[in-house]
Amino acid sequence: MASSNPPRSPRTAIALLLLGGLVYAGLYLHSAKFGLYEDDFWLPLEAILTPPGGIISRGWYYLVHPIQGRPLLALTYTLIAGANAIGGLWGVHLGAYLIKFGCAAVAFSILRRFVSEFAALLGAALFILEPSHTAGQLVIHSYGVFLACFFALGALRLYQARHPWWAMAAAAISMLMVESFIIYYIVAPLLRIERTRAWVRRAIIHAMGVALLILAVLLGRWFAGEQRVVQYAGSPRETFRLVSETIVNGTKTHATNLWVNASSSVAELFHQSPVFAITLFFTALVFTRAALLYFSSPRQSDLEDSDLRLGLFLFCLVAVPAAYATAFKYHPATWTGGRLSWIHFLGAFPVAAVCALLIDAGVRTNRAVRLISVAGCALVSVAVGTFQLRIQNIYVQCWANQRQMFGEALSGTPDLGPRSLIVVNLHGAPATTAVMSSSWADTLVLDQVFRWPPDWSGPANFFASNEPDTLTLAASRMVKTGEEWKFSLRPWLGPEGQYVAVDPKRIAYFEYHDGHFLRQARTWMVQGVPLSLSLAPADSVISSLRPDGPLAAILLGTH
Questions:
Q1: Does pTM surpass 0.85?
Q2: Which of 256, 325, 449, 521 falls 20 to 30 Å from 129 in CA-CA distance?
Q3: Which residues contact 269 (CB under 8 A, 6 or more apart)?
Q4: Helix locations, 296-366, DSSP H
């Protein structure tokens, strides 16, 4: 059997440098203008706002009291807090880049055992940059999903290098962060496939070890009363249905996303400037051809072993649907609210590995096929690159949208007081698709922008919607109990405990006109009761409250 550790060469270091540059350009070229998005206002925001002296104790708390049954999300929290302590929000995004580069580097190390360095480089880059999802720049996913993937790929690499105990430890870390990537390690023996009884014996022992690991984690969650484990364990028929649908729909959607996003990026680029598009393609063609020439080397003995490449192909064939099977609890794994789910990243490595096999086969045949393969690689590079740069611009626009929305709404509510409610109609305002400018997390923001006076009867709250008739939607969430009005901020969490008290005399309503959010005067009918929504007072009833909370400097630019 050929060695699973081909010798390193100076070209390997150059390949890693190129890979780092590609990941940075594709995902973080405009990171200086990135902010926080959607779920980032949950755990990541808490981590960012934690004083350096409290990082360890709070991280230990989340280790002992696991979030969603995942104790090593404590590592996610601690790393975000540490990155922020070092470099602020920019440091957080820099840390996210390093995690993704680490994923790409490990993927490259795995793939170069099966294909040439040229094919491994392109495969690793495609793995991180493939356009099947657009949630990659969210901080919560970078330090959660991608970090779990890093340990899962590390487990594969350690298994390749014949370090089974270290591999099992890395797989356990991955599973205790985000469980879905454990599927990679389950089918790891395929990466060292042999037509021998010894391989069968090793594969059986491996399967037993992984089964014990999974059983231990599931039992731990069961006894801890983790909601999803208890729910799905009690309804096996429904769980089987969800698993089946997620495998089919998830795999289909992944393939559709790849084609639609890549092809639409090329079409849009060509439509905007045909000359620039053609120039960009030929530039990519020249660089791709140069990379092929530079990374060409005498074939290593591994690359002549067809069983190894067959093993990698079988690994990919099994890993894609199996990975979606583990994500059934997120069903449906489709485009939701204009944002592609991170779930599609589960299939990114197997898909990229198949592409690396195809690239390697193409450049190792006759001259005509080699030229076609190089041209195809150049075209895919242009498609993926333009797509990711467009997504970066959307993230920049989204952060600007959020800062404008909160900034103008809060400055237009000088009468903010106990139990105030700010309602913002986003219809007509600049909108983003890859990541949402307004989300469920809006309700968490005010608590960190202000320090509520202890004598207030209740905090102020915030609600925004893209619905043209936002007031009608807001009215459907209002209830009156006796003389008290309440508003449902998060109805998806159930009826109990999701209502906040509202002072009907302190409701401010904003609409978007002429590039700004402006406060409007309205008579608002709620359950047959007219409520008066007034303009901001000129010089009276002005609140002494100022946005001096820990989030104010980040979101509003206050100091």
A1: yes
A2: 325
A3: 276, 277, 280, 382, 386
A4: 306-325, 348-363
